[in-house]
């Protein structure tokens, strides 16, 4: 099989795909930020909880809403074969991001002595920014992994299997090969978007 431009996207195509992914990640993240800050503000002002407790509660609610956006909108085309693994990794990396965010907030409140609500929100923004960078890298690398492209050996095995199933009808093998090629192309185009 000849290598085409579609199977080996150029650097510009890869960057366009990554920038589109970053924009979608940002939109889901922005909705999570709105949820996060709304819950934080209610906890700190309405319920009069301490800032770190308020931050943890707000972040946990945002993590739940973000998972839905990432799984069912942004990374819907990614491998979902093992949801248990995916959710476990998502919660692990989200928890690490929450620790980064809460650590920055705790440092600003307890070490720097920033005690007004506006100062705490500003510290939360800084922590959220650091946590977001960490989450973007970890989610796309380890949590929502791309479906692997079929190798030449896998294509050959599929052809051989199709030929064994119907040796008198070579067209069946061609159909199986075409289906594998179409599946691989859909994956490649999804990555480029």
From TrEMBL:
Where is it located? Answer: Membrane
Membrane topology reported for the UniProt record:
Multi-pass membrane protein
Q: Which residues cross the membrane?
A: 25-50, 56-75, 87-112
* Pfam families (UniProt xref): GtrA_DPMS_TM
Q: Which domain of life is it from?
A: Bacteria
Asked if the Swiss-Prot or TrEMBL record annotates the protein with the keyword Membrane, the reply is: yes
Where is the GtrA/DPMS transmembrane domain positioned along the sequence? 24-144
Q: Give the UniProt keywords, A-Z.
A: Membrane, Transmembrane, Transmembrane helix
The region annotated as signal peptide is none
Keyword Transmembrane included in the entry's annotation = yes
The family annotation for this protein states:
Belongs to the GtrA family.
**Name of the protein in its database record:** GtrA/DPMS transmembrane domain-containing protein
Origin species: Kitasatospora putterlickiae
């Amino acid at each position: 099989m000849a290598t085409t431009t579609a199977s080996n996207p150029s650097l510009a195509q890869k960057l366009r795909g990554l920038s589109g992914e970053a924009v979608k990640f940002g939109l889901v993240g922005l909705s999570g930020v709105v949820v996060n800050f709304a819950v934080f503000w209610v906890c700190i002002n309405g319920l009069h909880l301490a800032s770190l407790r308020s931050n943890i509660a707000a972040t946990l609610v945002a993590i739940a809403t973000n998972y839905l956006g990432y799984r069912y909108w942004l990374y819907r085309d990614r491998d979902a074969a093992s949801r248990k693994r995916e959710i476990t990794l998502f919660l692990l990396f989200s928890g690490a991001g929450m620790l980064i965010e809460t650590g920055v907030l705790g440092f600003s409140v307890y070490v720097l002595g920033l005690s007004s609500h506006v100062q705490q929100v500003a510290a939360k923004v800084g922590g959220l920014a650091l946590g977001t960078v960490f989450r973007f890298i970890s989610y796309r690398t380890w949590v929502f992994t791309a479906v692997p492209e079929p190798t030449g050996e896998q294509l050959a095995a599929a052809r051989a299997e199709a030929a064994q199933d119907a040796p008198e009808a070579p067209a069946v093998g061609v159909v199986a090969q075409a289906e594998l090629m179409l599946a691989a192309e859909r994956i490649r185009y999804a990555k480029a978007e």
